């Protein structure tokens, strides 16, 4: 199967599975499915960090979802999950600074096995917590979040291939272009306006703030994983998903966008 065909087919299967799970399964069961995905992502992250022994990698993956399990089983799960997501937002401010500093001057990026393993926890756990919080709040928000992230990814890829000329952030991810970024932003905002008109949910200004913040977070989630892969000298985080690479390659944007989207929803009182 050609790479593009494999990519499209895998994407359709994944999208259908997520939408079906969110719409048809009880929220707690869907949280369990997202936990399994997070564990797979953590296994790949531990490999990128240089953790070789399978038993240690599995232990690390289980430890990664432990904070979310503890929060979900607490007396006030929604509040605890939101706190975890907010902690993730604080981390992404640092991550953005790291990525931009690396692009400007090749400044030191996170290195060393222990440092990278800790960073994996602060990336994966808040991202999973945000999804759990959204599912418990209203599953529709999960679908909106996925729609923003998926449209940003697809349109950036398509726009970059068609019109891409100027590299966006060449030291980190040479394949990304400014033209792809603007196509993705414009298309994502139009999609959000269409969804919002259907749901009649948000005033335009609040919608713009929510989508823009989520979009920017998704971009930097992708860039951070690209930086990690560049440091390790690999193209993909794994080979599980034909045409896409590993699980981490599919959820990197979501891990950043989820906490930002969740905290923005809460802050805007939506």
Structure description:
The structure is a single chain. This protein has a two-stranded antiparallel sheet with strand order 1-2. The protein has one domain. With 270 residues, the protein is mainly α. The radius of gyration is 18 Å and the shape is globular. It has helices at residues 3-24, 27-48, 54-72, 77-105, 113-137, 139-163, 178-199, 204-232, 247-267; strands spanning 167-169, 173-177. The model has no long low-confidence stretch (mean pLDDT 87).
What is the fold's blueprint, element by element?
Blueprint (H helix, E strand, L loop, with lengths): L2 H22 L2 H22 L5 H19 L4 H29 L7 H25 L1 H25 L3 E3 L3 E5 H22 L4 H29 L14 H21 L3
Antiparallel strand pairs: 1-2
Concise synopsis of the structure shown:
The chain has 270 residues and is mainly α. Helices cover 79% and strands 3% of the residues. It has one domain.
């Amino acid at each position: 199967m050609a790479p593009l065909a494999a990519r499209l087919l895998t994407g359709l299967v994944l999208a259908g599975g997520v939408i079906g799970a969110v719409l048809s399964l009880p929220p707690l069961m869907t949280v369990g499915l997202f936990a399994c995905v997070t564990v797979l992502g953590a296994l790949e992250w531990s490999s990128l960090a240089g953790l070789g022994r399978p038993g240690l990698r599995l232990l690390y993956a289980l430890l990664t979802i432990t904070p979310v399990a503890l929060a979900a089983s607490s007396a006030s799960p929604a509040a605890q999950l939101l706190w975890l997501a907010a902690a993730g937002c604080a981390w992404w401010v640092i991550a953005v600074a790291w990525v931009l500093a690396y692009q400007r001057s090749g400044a030191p990026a996170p290195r060393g096995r222990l440092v990278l393993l800790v960073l994996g926890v602060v990336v994966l756990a808040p991202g999973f917590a945000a999804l759990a919080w959204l599912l418990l709040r209203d599953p529709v928000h999960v679908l909106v979040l996925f729609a923003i992230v998926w449209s940003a990814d697809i349109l950036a890829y398509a726009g970059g291939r068609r019109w891409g000329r100027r590299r966006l952030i060449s030291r980190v991810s040479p394949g990304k272009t400014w033209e792809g970024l603007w196509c993705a932003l414009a298309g994502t905002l139009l999609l959000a306006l269409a969804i919002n008109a259907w749901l009649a949910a948000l005033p335009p200004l609040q919608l713009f703030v929510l989508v823009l913040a989520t979009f920017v977070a998704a971009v930097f989630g992708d860039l951070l994983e690209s930086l990690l892969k560049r440091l390790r000298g690999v193209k993909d985080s794994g080979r599980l998903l034909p045409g896409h690479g590993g699980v981490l390659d599919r959820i990197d944007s979501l891990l950043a966008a989820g906490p930002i989207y969740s905290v923005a929803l809460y802050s805007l009182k939506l």
